[in-house]
Automatic annotation (TrEMBL):
Organism the protein comes from: Eleusine coracana subsp. coracana
Origin: domain of life: Eukaryota
Molecular function in Gene Ontology: sequence-specific double-stranded DNA binding; zinc ion binding
PROSITE patterns per record: ZF_BED
Protein name listed in UniProt: BED-type domain-containing protein
Gene name for this UniProt entry: gb23890
Length: 91
């Protein structure tokens, strides 16, 4: 048998998908938190975040550290919902 099949089975059009992801600097958690700034050498630096719901103040120093804020928001919502339910059910 004549097996002269082309070895290179490379699917054409390997398009260059060098698309940069537009990562937003501001996270959506700030919809539920108030940023608290501290002025250092005339420069405002975000240091804390205040929860809209329970008024808790969480540390939010630096950039891109909103994981715990997300977690807090989630538990805060769950807690407030549970509290509302308990209040509605019985005293
Ligand atoms: Zn909260």
């Amino acid at each position: 048998m004549d097996s002269s099949a082309p070895a290179s089975a490379t699917p054409g059009s390997t398009g260059s998908t060098g698309r940069k992801r537009g990562q937003k600097c501001t996270s959506d958690v700030w919809d539920d938190f108030d940023p608290i700034y501290n002025e250092v050498n005339g420069v405002k630096v975000k240091v804390k975040a205040k929860c809209h719901r329970c008024k808790s103040i969480l540390s939010a120093a630096g950039s891109g550290g909103t994981g715990h804020l997300r977690r807090h928001r989630k538990s805060c919502i769950a807690k407030s919902e549970r509290t509302a339910r308990v209040q509605g059910a019985s005293v």
